[in-house]
């Protein structure tokens, strides 16, 4: 899969207003719907909320990785939003979240595809430089470049 098919300008939004985790997840679901990646924003939202019930996706350092693997997802996507004000996410480090990297994966998509995405993101979120690049990004282009650079140089994921 080509990187531009997975994340592009239509899947990145900066300075989003949300007062809660639920409101932030609804913003993500709406954005992913507008980008044509899901059949239903409501279904995708509920999928992400179900995942949050199992364990927090608040990774730490102000970042969360909400995700859902479900049949309502039409095509895999990475959606990134920055929040105008950080919100409580019950993150692993108990710090509020300001940046969300959401994954949408179709149920039938390539076995462990979602695990590969999560592993790549998690591995890079251990790197201070990667975290700093994301949190200090002031344009969609900076976020796109930071995210796509962690995947293979061949342009395929």
UniProtKB/TrEMBL annotation:
Keyword Cell membrane: no
Keywords for this protein: Phosphoprotein, Phosphotransferase system, Sugar transport, Transferase, Transport
Cited CDD domains: PTS_IIA_fru
Pfam families attached to this UniProt entry: PTS_EIIA_2
Superkingdom per UniProt: Bacteria
Record bears the keyword Metal-binding: no
Residues annotated as signal peptide: none
InterPro entries recorded: PTrfase/Anion_transptr, PTS_EIIA_type-2_dom, PTS_IIA_fruc, PTS_SugarTrans_NitroReg
PTS EIIA type-2 domain mapped to chain residues: 5-150
PANTHER family cross-referenced by the UniProt entry: PTS SYSTEM FRUCTOSE-LIKE EIIA COMPONENT (PTHR47738:SF2), PTS SYSTEM FRUCTOSE-LIKE EIIA COMPONENT-RELATED (PTHR47738)
Protein name per its UniProtKB record: PTS system fructose family transporter subunit IIA
């Amino acid at each position: 899969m080509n990187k531009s098919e997975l994340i592009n300008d239509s899947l990145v939004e900066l300075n989003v207003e949300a007062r809660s985790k639920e409101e932030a997840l609804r913003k993500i679901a709406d954005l992913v719907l507008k980008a044509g990646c899901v059949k239903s924003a409501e279904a995708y939202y509920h999928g992400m909320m179900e995942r949050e019930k199992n364990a927090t996706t608040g990774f730490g350092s102000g970042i969360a990785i909400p995700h859902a693997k479900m049949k309502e997802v039409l095509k895999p996507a990475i959606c990134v939003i920055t929040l105008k004000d950080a919100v409580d996410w019950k993150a692993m480090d108990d710090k509020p979240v300001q940046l969300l990297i959401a994954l949408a994966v179709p149920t039938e998509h390539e076995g462990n595809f979602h695990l590969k995405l999560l592993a790549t993101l998690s591995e890079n979120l251990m790197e201070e430089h990667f975290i700093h690049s994301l949190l200090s990004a002031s344009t969609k282009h900076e976020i796109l470049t930071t995210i796509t650079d962690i995947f293979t140089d061949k342009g395929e994921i």
